[in-house]
Structures are given as C-alpha cells and as structure tokens.
Amino acid sequence: MRILITNDDGINAPGLEALAEIAAEIAGPDGEVWTVAPAFEQSGVGHCISYAHPTLIAELAPRRWAAEGSPADCVLAAIGDIMADAPPDLILSGVNRGNNAGENVMYSGTIGAAMEGALQGIPSIALSQYLGAATARLTDPFDCARVHGARVVRALLDRGTWAAKDDFALFYNVNFPPVGGGGMRGIRVAPQGRRSGVRFGVHPHVAPNGRRFLWVGGGPQTAPATPGSDVEALMAGYTTITPMRPDLTCRAATEALAGDLDEG
C-alpha cells in the first residue's frame, strides 16, 4: 500500500512523526509512506488552496517533501506531481495538535487535506489528538494516537463505507481523547457536535510602535456540547469517528424552503 501523509502543523511537527509511525504500520514492509506537508504551520486554513499564486515544493529526503502552501495544496501536489505516476492508495492527515471536533471542524486544515483527498477519489482519514490536563503530564502528548491509531485506521479500511470514485466524496474524521493510551475507554461513532456558547473571535493588541493587531482565538474546549456528539464522547474518554462529506446542504431547510418558494 502507498500512503500519503500530510498535516497542517508543518513538516517538523511531532504529530506528523506520530502519523508516520501509524502509516508505516499500516503500509507494512512492502508498502511506501510518502510525506508532503506544509513547510510552515497552516492551522486554521480549512480547505484553502493556493489558487491565485504558485506553490513552491522542495524534496527534503526520499519520499519526503515540503510545500509552501496549505494542506490541501500538499494533497494536490502529491497527486498531480510528486506521486503522479502512482497515486496513493490512502491519505492520512494529522496527527493534529489539538482536537478537530465540534465547531473546530469548519476551520481545520487537517480536515481540509482529507476533504481534498476524498474529492480526488482517494480514501482519506483525518486524525487529531485532543489535548488536556492529562496529556500535559505525559512525555508524549500523542501517546493515545500512537497506541491506537493503526488499529482505528485498519478498522475503517476493513469496515468503513467508502464512496465510489464518481460519487460525492466521503472521508473520516478521527479524534483521540485527552488521555494517555491506557486511558482510552473505547471507540464511538458520533456526529459532529457544537460546544455551547463557543465561537472564534478577535483579541486586539497594540504593539510598542503603536500599530494595532488582532489575534484570533477560540473558546473553551471543555464547554458543554451537543448530547451524543463527538465532543461529548471525547470528553468522556472515547476515540470518535465521524463520517463526513464536503456537502454543506441543509436538507430540512431545503425541503421546507422549496415548498414555499419553488415556482413552475
């Protein structure tokens, strides 16, 4: 199996090192693991692509490339150029430093890479490590992802539903709970939730030279969340799996509005 790994924390991020270990276990001794990751951190860029300017790519080592672009750019670079002669069989994105559950999904470059892979017709999985008080005490905050990552990916490859190449894309969002590997309670398939009252916002600051800057920040990650959701299950110590599609249609509102506004 040929596996492409990428992330949004950058080519030197420790989570990408953890993902390389997971991918190597999945690929096996006869497989290949290719890395195409952003040269610099790209957290929060979502599914952004560098449509208006070119992307510089550089080979750092055999099967290891850096791209001055977004995670989705990295996937496009791999499929369209670096691995064009033999595209990957699987794309893994992560392991993100922090959770990509609830409202975080909409901003995540980790999710954006998996989404682009799915749009290209390749099975894709995003993996993220929820951080908290328990992981802060660990030598390796990615311990839960390292211990359970390969097993979760194998389970999805064996029993997950994968869209046909010409169908609307389907990919999976995996989040590991904020505990060590021995503290995980199990796996839950759960829908994306929402933390109550949590929104991104800006924090203004004035630099010593008088210039005004805005820092973007999120809300508390332990806020109460939608019952039965990914966030609630993660806080209870479960690894969550959420099937996703890049289709933002609200079916209920579409049907209701069509009944009122459709003409002809």
Task: Describe the protein.
This protein is of the alpha/beta class and 264 residues long. The chain has a single domain (2-195, 224-261), classed as 3-Layer(aba) Sandwich (Stationary-phase Survival Protein Sure Homolog, Chain: A), CATH 3.40.1210. 28% of the residues lie in helices and 24% in strands. The chain is built from seven helices and eleven strands. The strands form two sheets. It has a nine-stranded mixed β-sheet, sandwiched between helices. Strands 9-10 form a two-stranded antiparallel sheet. Helix 1 packs parallel to helix 5 (143-159) and helix 2 runs parallel beside helix 3. It is globular, with a radius of gyration of 19 Å. Keywords: Cytoplasm, Hydrolase, Metal-binding, Nucleotide-binding. Its cofactor is a divalent metal cation.
Mean pLDDT: 95
Spatial strand sequence of the major β-sheet: 3-4-2-1-5-6-7-11-8
Multimerization status: single chain
Q: Would you give the CATH topology?
A: Stationary-phase Survival Protein Sure Homolog, Chain: A
> Tell me about the biggest sheet?
9 strands, mixed
In angstroms, what is the radius of gyration?
19 Å
Low-pLDDT stretches: none
| Overall structural domain count | 1
Measured between the Cα atoms of the first and last residue, the distance is 52 Å
Q: Label the CATH architecture.
A: 3-Layer(aba) Sandwich
- The residue fraction in helices comes out at 25-40%
CATH superfamily: Survival protein SurE-like phosphatase/nucleotidase
Order of helices and strands: EHEEEHEHEHHEEEEHEH
Quick one: overall form? globular
